[in-house]
Amino acid sequence: MLIDMHAHIVPEHFPAAGKRDSADRWPFMDHFEAGRAKVMIAGENFRTVTEQCWNSARRTGDMTKEGVDVQVISPMPELFSYWFTSKDALEMSHHVNETIARMAQSSPRHFYGLGMAPLQDPDLAARQLSKIKQMGLLGVEIGSNVEGKSLGEARFLPFWQEVERLEMAVSDSMVRFCKLSPRSISEYIDSGEPMDKAGGYAIQGRAAAFIPELRGSYSGVMGLPLYETAELISRFADESPA
Q1: Contact by Cβ (8 Å): 97, 115
Q2: CA 140 – CA 21 distance, rounded (Å)
Q3: Is the pLDDT score of 209 beyond 60?
Q4: CATH number at residue 144
Q5: Same domain, yes or no, for 147 and 185?
Q6: Order of strands across the sheet that contains 44-50
Q7: Triad 145, 148, 154: Cα angle to 5°
Q8: Is 222 part of any domain?
Q9: Do 94 and 203 share a domain, yes or no?
Q10: Is residue 221 part of a domain?
């Protein structure tokens, strides 16, 4: 069986921004032609995507052509919305999680889902975990930090405690960089490699030369912890009715 562990989705539409506090960065889908849309954020095109992002039938058709049996679908990271108010981030999380749950339910043989939670409010995020699990999602995808705050800070403890209580998988990795000279930093930035990376570096690329120590999951640092995700899929498959 071939499993694609790193498959992001984008909803076909988002609720209207209206007069919400986070309206200035609330996303909007500009369907400028059939099967393609611009993800508009703050008046600019963040990314142009195709209907595979929201169309389950189109997605499974492409999977068949490519020989992929299963995809673990998860939110495009820009949708995490840690920069929104907690209220707006919660609504965005609900919308994205419901989209992923519907896709997974539409083709349970092909899709397993990971949701998202409003981690700018760790207590609120913790309360959402049981709801996410009840939706049939295997866990949540999270960013490498929350607006510059380390996920190891004490205020995130309620979230991690609830993750443990619900027996959701956690992948925790520590990456140690060597001391970099201003020239090394400048040359790395000029290479363009860090510009589209959540952590600002690619461990599978040039940045590997800066890293003397890694503890944890190499695949998790790259983008998705394969071991933990495979464990979740195995557990979910064992619990699912035949």
Answers
A1: yes
A2: 25
A3: yes
A4: 3.20.20.140
A5: no
A6: 28-33, 36-41, 44-50
A7: 70
A8: no
A9: no
A10: no
Q: Answer yes or no: do 182 and 235 share one domain.
A: no
- Phi and psi at residue 56, to the nearest 5°: -60, -40
Number of domains the chain is built from: 2
Q: What is the mean pLDDT of residues 185-199?
A: 87
From CA 216, how far away is CA 235, in angstroms rounded?
21
CA atoms of 154 and 152, how far apart (whole Å): 7
Answer whether 96's CB lies under 8 Å from 107's CB. no
Domain that includes residue 136, residue range: 3-172+228-239
Q: What pLDDT is recorded for position 170?
A: 63
Residues 6+ away with beta carbon under 8 Å from 77: 8, 141, 143, 198
Mean pLDDT over all residues of the chain? 90
Could you read off the pLDDT of 174-187 as tens digits, one per residue? 788 999 999 999 99
- pTM for the model: 0.79
**Cα–Cα distance between 64 and 48 in angstroms, integer?**
24
Query: For residue 236, is pLDDT > 70?
Result: no
